Structures are given as structure tokens and as C-alpha cells.
Amino acid sequence: MDALDLLLTRESALKLAAPGPSQADLDAMFQSAVRAPDHGRLRPWHFVVIDTDRRAAFGELMAQSLRRRMPDAEDEMLDRERAKAMRAPTIVVTAAKVNKSAKISAFEQIASAAAATQTLLLAANAKGFGAMWKTGDAAYDPDVKVALGLAADDEILGFLYVGTDVGGTSPIPRPEAAKYVSVWQG
Ligand SMILES: Cc1cc2nc3c(=O)[nH]c(=O)nc-3n(C[C@H](O)[C@H](O)[C@H](O)COP(=O)(O)O)c2cc1C
Predict the structure, then answer these.
(1) Which residues in the chain show pLDDT less than 50?
(2) Is 8 in the pocket of ligand 1 (CB under 6 A)?
(3) Distance, CA 2 to ligand 1 centroid (Å)?
(4) Is the separation of the CB atoms in 11 and 17 below 8 Å?
(5) Phi/psi of residue 129, each to 5°?
(6) CB 132 near ligand 1, within 6 Å
(7) CA–CA distances in Å: residue 99 to residues 26, 30, 35, 43, 106
(8) Which residue has the least CA distance to atom 4 on ligand 1?
(9) pLDDT tens for residues 23-43?
(10) Strand pairing of 130-134 and 90-96?
């Protein structure tokens, strides 16, 4: 697909199924992501792949996180958390490892990780997969970060769900870009 067509038609997937990306697909996605603009060459990004066979364990992590936040959470709510992990064959956690002693601000390092995250979404689309970017409270839970092999003070940018798009097209109306653009008259 032409690059601009990809950008002009990008949308989150609604429903994903197997097959997910192969190792070669993931390699291409990550190689694209590390082209994200990066002030100071700090390489602040980190990506954690959750393969199909680790999804149940990830779902359990999400459920435990909810239980810590809401000790009275009903079983149904906990099951809903567990089920989120089953939304796609592959999940990629994107994170920023902010170098706090660097001259470049944390804001700019996190912005670079957000750019890398968007690149991953687009590269997944370019490889023919659907993708969705989710967070939720678990993304801000230090225990979840540590369980995923991150540091407690790393920032999780997103849980990217990637797989074969089987869900139709988004009902979201797309805004007119001109509303969000001004031309400085100074
Ligand atoms: C940082 C970030 C976190 C998000 N977290 C969620 C989320 O937890 N749940 C959700 O439904 N959408 C979340 N979204 C929004 C979706 O990724 C998506 O953009 C939205 O549903 C609109 O669909 P579209 O991508 O087709 O425009 C998040 C987006 C961003 C940038």
C-alpha cells in the first residue's frame, strides 16, 4: 500500500484473531519503530512481546492489578480483565526508559517512545495486520511493570494488540483536519 494511503486510512482494529505477526513481521515492525525521532540518541524505548502462549499469564497479571486497586472487585470484573489479554494473538508492550540524568527532558523521551509506538501500529498495518493501542490503569501499576521485566519507574506507553483484522471498519467519524490547523499571521 502507498504510504500516504496507509496514513489516510489508518484506524484501530475492532476485532483481531490468529494468525498474528511472525517473527520476521515483528522484526520489521521493531526495526521501523527504532527509526522514531529521538532527541539526543537516547534510545528511550523498550518493547516487550507477549506471545500467544503467554497471554493467559498476562491476563492474570491484569486481574491481579485490578484486585490490588479494587480489593472488592467481583469475579466477573476480574474475568473481564483476564479476557482482555485474549483480544489478539500477539501483544506488544511499549515503554519509555527515561534517562533522568540526560539533558533531554523526560517529556521529550516519552514523546519519542510515543512516536515509536505509533510507528509500530503503522508497521503492523503495513504488514497486513490490524492493531489497537490500549492502556488502562494496569499500564500505570509499578507491579505490572516489574512483572513485565520493566523497572517500576519506566513508563508504559501502551499495550498494542496485533493480529489478523476480522472486525470490520471503525464507526468513528474522522475530523476535518483544517479545524486543528492555524496559520500564524505574525
Ligand atoms: C496513549 C493511548 C492510550 C489509549 N488507551 C485506550 C484504552 O485503554 N482503551 C481504549 O478503548 N482506547 C484507548 N486508546 C484509543 C484507541 O487506541 C483508539 O485510538 C481509539 O479507539 C480511536 O480509534 P482509532 O484509532 O480508529 O481512531 C488509547 C490511545 C492512546 C494514544
Answers:
(1) none
(2) no
(3) 24
(4) no
(5) -105, 155
(6) yes
(7) 26, 21, 19, 9, 7
(8) 134
(9) 999 999 999 999 999 999 999
(10) unpaired
Let me know how long the chain is.
Answer: 186
What residue segments make up the domains of the chain, in order of their start?
15-70+77-167
In this structure, the residue with its CA closest to atom 12 of ligand 1 is 134
Nearest in space to 39 (alpha carbons), one of 117, 92, 108, 128: 108
Residue by residue, DSSP assigns 114-158 as HHHHHHHHHHHHHTT-EEEEE--GGGG-HHHHHHTT--TTSEEEE
Residues ≥6 apart with Cβ < 8 Å to 27? none
CATH assignment of 15-70+77-167? Answer: 3.40.109.10
Is the Cβ atom of 158 under 6 angstroms away from ligand 1? yes
For the entire predicted model, the pTM comes to 0.97
State which of 66, 119, 125, 134 you would mutate to test the pocket of ligand 1, scoring each by most atoms of that ligand within 8 A of its C-beta: 134
pLDDT of residue 170: 83
Of 20, 6, 138, 26, the closest CA to residue 87 belongs to: 20
pLDDT for the residue 171: 86
- Our answer on whether the CB atom of 113 is closer than 6 Å to any ligand 1 atom is no
